[in-house]
Predict the 3D structure of the following.
Amino acid sequence: MAEVQPVEIVIVGGGTAGWMTAAALGHFLDQGYKVHLVESDAIGTIGVGEATIPQIRMFNQALGIDEDAFIRATQATFKLGIEFVGWKTPGHSYMHAFGDVGRAVGLCAFHHVWSRGVRLGLAGPTHDYCLNDIAAKQDRMHRGKALTAPTVPEMPHAFHFDAGLYARFLRSFAESRGVGRTEGTIEEVLRDGDSGDVSAVRLGSGETVRGDLFIDCSGMRALLIGQALGSPYEDWSHWLPCDRALAVPSARVEQFTPYTRSTAHDAGWQWRIPLQHRTGNGRVYCSAFTSDDASAESLLAHLDAAPLDDPRPIRFTTGRRREAWKHNVIAVGLSSGFLEPLESTSIHLIQSAISRILKFMPGRVAVQAERDEYNRQFAFEMERIRDFIVLHYTLNERDEPFWQACREMALPGSLTDRIALFRTGGHIFRDADELFSEVAWFQVMAGQGIVPARSHGIAEALDVADLKAWLETINALYRREASRYPSHADYIARHCAAPAMAMAAA
């Protein structure tokens, strides 16, 4: 009997997308598959995805990666949420924190209780009822069960990390599990004359790498899915008009705030991501409302430490591929589409694409029905995240022309309906398995200034004294709990400091 040859999977491109894919496929697939990655050290990566959301922990845990070892290897810090400064009006701020806000009253979600409390003058901002938010603003950190009361929830967390170091970490992991690597630039994509599938890639060295399934992790070049197969790109810049970014690292700061900061400016926004060895900074802006030089000057003027390099320009068009899986090519990461990093979703989108690939796991033959369903799921996820990001822009009350244009633009119908449901009756419903929860939508809509006109009937029927006591009790419990936590910097120094930092502390 002839020996059955393994299915050859070729990953085109390294970076975070390529090595996350390689690590997962190398870990989960058996001897029936052979995984090979082609990359060139001469080709840079975007590398703005240094902030994550809590789902990254599931990815690392599934691979059996020790969390503290990962933090040390990637110079990571903890992340409890994202602070939005100036998005409603200059000087105003709120946080989209991970975890729950408040406590439900029976079947009545907390945001209904809160909105009635606001209308009665009894409730404070959402910050007062979220443990993650309270701890983050005090620069405190803790993992595991609460210290003061069993009724206090655990704090979910994510990370800020150096994406280049994470790719290097995963490369070592993947290669230890049999993933092959070839260094070289791709000069030609070869396709089968009958099926139209990609059959191989030819490198500048003349070497040919053949495969049955190709994963396109070539970034915005979209070498396979776009250039070779011509999957159309759906442009969303009429909803998300920012089209350029500048990224620059700055020197390490002593205060490792356990949250990302996003600060609105006259034509976009600026990010701040603290790591153990440096701070990641960047400015996202719309070129129709400001110049590259003015943006670079403003970026450098708003750093909290000395820059370590010149600002690196990035140009992009927000949107997605119509088909992320076409023929025998599946696009992962920026080759499949781009959403600005406002809510730290870029690495999660890599992770969710890998999860879908593993669920479908095509061999040498795939049917169109499988591709269609994969593409439907991909489109749904991208569109719901798009709506969530647009939400931040459209609810602003700023005076600058850019922000006025964002406030006046026609919205996707799906987003218009969500805002109306919350504004009129405080209702938030999660659609199927979309990424952002009801609590996430609540924090952003409330943070941007929406107070529902009415609440759920259960909340409206609550005794006013009981409602006041409920709000005060939650706030007191969470403030007492957070006060027991060490500072974020001390927590890292005790548990997971990178070697250089640990030596400096000693």
Notes: The first strand starts at residue 7 and ends at 12. The mean pLDDT is 95. Residues 368-394 form the longest helix (27 residues).
